[in-house]
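From the thread on structure requests for the teaching lab: each student submitted one protein with a one-line request. Submission from student K.M.:

"Model Glutathione S-transferase from Aureimonas phyllosphaerae, tokens only."
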Amino acid sequence: MTILLYDLVGSDPSRPFSPHCWKARMALAHKGLEFDALPTRFTEVAEVEGGGGRTVPVIRDGDAVVQDSFAIAEYLDDTYPDRPPLFERQSGRALARFVESWSQRTLHPAIVRATILDIHAAQDDENKAFFRTKREKAFGKPLEQVQDGRTEEKRLAASKSLEPLRATLRNQPFLAGERPMFADYIVFGGFQWLRVLSTFQLLDDGDPIADWFERCLDLHGALGRQVPAAA
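Reply posted by the TA:
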């Protein structure tokens, strides 16, 4: 049975953008598992698989329903151990947790500060209102004040904050070493989010991170390139 992935989209259902859903997409492809993506808008998320305040990604695999990208990766490794692993044993899961914490506290805020108005613009009218209300309540200020990261000074500061990632990728092709694993997909999700929604360039050409991202876009039959970059 084909796995169902609830995948966050805006007004264009062919342009999934959620960094967390992209982690799940890449994990499923890594395992060689067939899946159908169900386009899901912000206002529809809470009712996914019976509701209960869900967030996406969510997968349904037969009778199993799994929420959260990391939990999905763990489920896939546990359920399909005969397929390529997403983690190198339990220690790999623990290290990937660190990568996730770093990504969501360093990379994601930099992207939000540069692109939150692009995220808003990608929604239909109903979801624009929903997104603005939720995010302005969370940030305590208008979206126009949240997006303050496009000056050259702040772009360079955000890029500099990625130096641990850059230093690692100068010495090896993927975060996991010679081949990608879930740790790579965690960080890939953030850069794919930026690529799909915005023309803002966080990285300079020739940056080892940019080169790594291009390699990730080519993985699994160029899955990441199936959605064109924002223009």
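TA comment: The chain has two domains: 3-79, 89-226. The chain has a mean pLDDT of 97.
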